[in-house]
Amino acid sequence: MFKLLIKLFLFIILFFSNSYSEIIKDIEVVGNKRISKQTILVLGDIKINNDFDDISLNHTLKQLYETDFFSDIKFSINNGLLKITVKENPIIEKININGIKKKIFVENIYSSISLKDRTSYNDFKLQADITLIKNILKTNGYYFSSINVRKETDVNLNSILLNLDIELGKKAKIRDIIFIGDKKFKDKKLLELIASEEYKFWKFVTNKVYLNQSLIDLDKRLLENFYKNNGYAKVKVLNSFAELDSQGSFKLIFNINSGNKYFFNELNLNLPADYDKDDFKKILNTFDDLKNEKYSLNNINLILDDIDNIASSRLYDFIDVQVDERIIDKNKINLNFSVQDSEKFYVEKINIFGNFNTVEEVVRNKLIVDEGDPYNELLFNKSVNEIKALGIFKSVRSEMIDGSDENSKVLNLTVEEKPTGEISMGAGYGTDGGVLGASITEKNFMGRGIILDSDLQLSNDGIKGKVTYAKPNFNYSDNTLFTSIKSTNQDYLSTSGYKIANTGVSIGTEFEQYENLFFRPELDISQEDLTTNSTASNTLKKQEGSYSDFYFNYGLTYDTRDLTYQPTSGSVMTFSQDLPIVSTNKEISNTFIFTKYKKLNSDDMVGKVSVYLKAISSLDNSDVRISKRANLPSSRLRGFEKGKIGPIDNGDFVGGNYAGSLNFSTNLPGLLYTFENIDFNYFVDIANVWGADYDSTIDDSNEIRSSTGLALDYLSPIGPLNFSWTIPITKKSSDKTEIFRFNLGTTF
To answer: H or E element: which one contains 265?
Structure first.
């Protein structure tokens, strides 16, 4: 019916406009107060001595109505006199958004709506803006808000003072997050994956505990991607919230239909006839490795990236890859990757929308495809993923529209910003003492993608603090520039007779040198003071004093893991070295770490093998300082107190010139499966700290230590609990062992 009325209206306009077929000799404008006659003529493209007919009438009406300046426009022509009668829309003197205390929240709403101060008022735009504001409020957890519109009109000035009175109401809390259906995995695992969180009184600084549809949509994608990376290619995730209680809280329910678990069967690559198949040998080798492995969306994306890289390096500029999945059995999938020549066109322009707080260059710096380049769909999709990986946007949407000619396209990117600041506090207690910590992080400082991070830790032995500044893509180099200020004060006077105070600053960069190979050079300057008392050993007393250090440190990392978080295959290898430039004591330190991940069976059991080696030695025949000497991190040798193995000086453990460990671990997914919030891990640690080159009197028996045990992770109502039971297998009588360890902590 509505379309019929529109057609009838246009017919009437066209019918009556047929009488207008005269030459304009003069023009009269009536009804305008704010908009000048000359402006109306320019906006309507109206000129004296031009022919005025039905075509020019429709063109002028369209031009003038699109300005939003007028609510009504009438034309008449008589003896060459064109009379234009207009009714102006009132001007919005000011928009007041009332009822919200947070200035940044108000600014976000104002920047999102279409109506602005000193623009023309429009009823339809107002209704659309009210709907938009309600959606913004819901995104921030205000599902019970109301908006009252008050208009104060000044007839003489034809202006409106627009008041939007907002009653926020209580935030809609998430009381419970429940997973139902054929979910396959423990609730604990699924809760770790999603962004939404259950409301707890200590989580008052995060919005993740309130209903947020954008966040819920993200949760669904995260869940589906997790399942698809674990073999469940046809998973479906639906969500609903129900059971509103008297406190305004909801149950957030995810209904998961995982379907069958699938494994790769045959993988084939179809290429155009003029492509050299030898260029794609790497892809064919990958196909052989993946056969009979579980279906993984991540592996498919890696194959697409490899095809893209090969095509780009061989100058196959315009390609399109289609992936055809065919189920051939209850649990087997064939994949066909078809590479085709795509439509050849160029990127005329890239528009970026929605970055109200983020500087545009932060987004553009992640674009692999640039204006003027040949369009490559794979590279463009990779660019979108790089923008998402910044972690400062809720969503990134893209669209392609026609350019100025048939050989060009315009790409539109729309980003939705999210809060990027985080305040966290935590507490933990283990058998070696208590730890308190707090941190403040901002991932998009000043809208430039800059990361600011500050961290403070308090323990029985002292205090540690660190502030870090990181600038991605510094000076348009694709390198990350970082600088840190750190301070440590460790007081062992009562136990070992010495105290160490260290303050330093570092500056460095990190970038991908080659595919999967990362380089991290750094300059480090520090000042250290070592104080002793009468109970300290003679060796430590000799080291008492102040030390100035200026070091060049670098690291090389080769990473082939399938996933950064909870990998199931691949490896990561790192070599780092600390080299003295100017130092009171010149010491060189080398560290090597290699970790390999492998899927052990079809029940999601993943094995992990890790090697850790560290060596430090003096370049000027001086003693290696106690603060520089090698020790093992707690995770490398469980069952022993941290720093309580290796060379001993007068009863004090002083660390060694060398440290090394070999660690084996695997998760036990089938153990206590009925307990949703409990995970078990089995581990074996073999390690040692040895070497005492600065004093022959130091006891260094150089004996191998080893241990085995079980670790339990329990997601309790008050936060995560971590338990470990360890049995030392081989040890020295002087070693300090630790059979049981636990830690309780939470972030709020």
So the answer is: strand 263-270
CA dist 732 → 79, 122, 563, 635, 657 (Å):
114, 83, 39, 19, 18
598-609 burial, b at 16+ Cβ within 10 Å, e below that, comes to ebeeeebebebe
Q: What total of structural domains would you count in the chain?
A: 5
At 716 the pLDDT is 59
Count other C-beta atoms under 10 Å from residue 646's C-beta: 32
Nearest to 83 by CA among 20, 45, 38, 26: 26
Distances (CA, A) of 690 to 278, 630, 634, 733: 51, 9, 16, 16
User: Which of 224, 257, 290 is a domain's end point?
Assistant: 257
Instruction: For 446-537, list the strands marked E by DSSP.
Output: 450-459, 462-471, 480-492, 498-514, 517-532
Q: Which of 206, 238, 257 is the endpoint of a domain?
A: 257
Tokens (6 digits) for 112: 């999102």
| HSE value, Cβ hemisphere, 13 Å, CA-based, for 120 | 15
Helix orientation angle between 297-313 and 281-290, rounded to the nearest 10 degrees: 170
Closest CA to 538 of 734, 690, 693, 695: 695
Give me the CATH number covering residue 400: 3.10.20.310
* 405 CB neighbour count, 10 Å cutoff: 10
Q: What is the 3-state secondary structure (H, E, C) of 190-213?
A: HHHHCCCCCCCCCCCCCHHHECCH
HSE value, Cβ hemisphere, 13 Å, CA-based, for 81: 7
d(CA 119, CA 395): 30
pLDDT score recorded for residue 650: 74
330 and 382 belong to one structural domain: no
CA distances from 146 to 122, 165, 185, 198, 378 (A): 21, 8, 40, 25, 45
On whether the CB atoms of residues 700 and 655 are closer than 8 A, the answer is: no
277 lies in the same domain as 324: yes
What is the rounded radius of gyration, in angstroms, for the C-alpha atoms of the chain? 34
Q: Which of 308-322, 489-503, 552-566, 584-598 has the lowest mean pLDDT?
A: 308-322
Residue 734 and residue 650 in contact, taking contact as beta carbons nearer than 8 Å: no
Q: Is residue 327 part of a domain?
A: yes
Q: Which run of H or E residues covers position 4?
A: helix 2-17
Enter the tokens of residue 144.
């019970």
Q: Do 156 and 183 lie in a common domain? A: no
| Residues 394 and 351 placed together within one structural domain of the fold | yes
Report pLDDT digits (tens) over 638-686.
888 777 888 887 777 888 899 999 999 998 876 655 455 677 889 999 9
Please tell me whether residues 59 and 31 are part of one structural domain. Answer: yes
**Which of 232, 547, 221 is closest to 394 using CA atoms?**
221
| Average pLDDT over all residues of the chain | 80
Residues in the chain: 748
Quote the tokens at residue 163. 């008041």
Say how far apart CA 666 and CA 682 lie, in whole Å: 6
Q: Is residue 298 part of a domain?
A: yes
Query: In this model, does residue 590 exceed pLDDT 90?
Result: yes
Cα 447 off chain centre by: 15
Contact 277, 316 (CB under 8 A): no
Identify the CA nearest to 481 among candidates 500, 508, 512: 508
Residues 158, 186, single domain; the answer is: no
Q: Which residue in 723, 652, 663 sits closest to 688, CA to CA?
A: 663
Give Dmax over CA atoms of the chain in angstroms.
Answer: 119
Do the Cβ atoms of 519 and 556 come closer than 8 Å? yes
Domain assignment of residue 252, given as a range = 173-257
My answer on whether 62 and 12 are in the same domain is: yes
Angle CA(64)–CA(65)–CA(66) in degrees, nearest 5? 90
Reading the block at residue 208, the tokens are 């993740």
Question: Higher pLDDT residue, 703 or 718?
Answer: 703
